[in-house]
Prior knowledge:
single chain, alpha+beta, Fumarylacetoacetate hydrolase, domain 2, six-stranded mixed β-sheet, five-stranded mixed β-sheet, 5 helices, globular
Amino acid sequence: MKLAFEAPVLHTLTVAGRQERIPVNRVFCVGRNYAAHAREMGKDPDREPPFFFMKPASAVVDAANPVRLKYPPKTQNYHHEIELVVVIASGARDVAIRDALNHVYGYAVGLDMTRRDLQLQARDQGRPWEFGKSFSQSAPIGSVYRAEDIGHPGTSDIAVEVNGKTKQSSNISKMIWSVEESISYLSQYEALEPGDVLFTGTPEGVGPVVPGDSLRGSIAGLGEISVSIID
């Protein structure tokens, strides 16, 4: 097949301790999946059905090693959101909760970087969130740890520091919807495919970063990522 023009580069992720890499297909994100974060965003944290938004594969940055992110344009309120990231290995539709983890390749630390002012403006106007969430370099992800090596984390501490000060600190057990519930629910609306990536939501404590800031995100058992913000 001859292409009319050169296709964008394939985005891939590092696998911890291995030479192989993971091709990124699509990026799904669970919104407001920690009750305390829902409250700080002014929303009711009751256990209503989960909702999802998407980022393009081009948003992904391989952050297995320290990376620098450019401060994005058209915002004065650029936020960090630390999250557990799940990588799907095998596709399926209408996945039962009891079977959901069988489709998981592995887990990683991720940051859902957000142009908060644009997101909230869109939300208040009843418009899509894309300009606030779905931009280049908005999804740095650390090394992916294979589930067959580490199991399926359920009670790991999750945190992010900005310039050495802890800003977000919680435990993934506080997610409103578990990994397997989120996978099962999502698969009812969209057939999962190998290389799909799922951001599972962020705990409370989100806040702004500016050029010159350094972030260190971690999840127990999954290492950490180091990100610097540049002008």
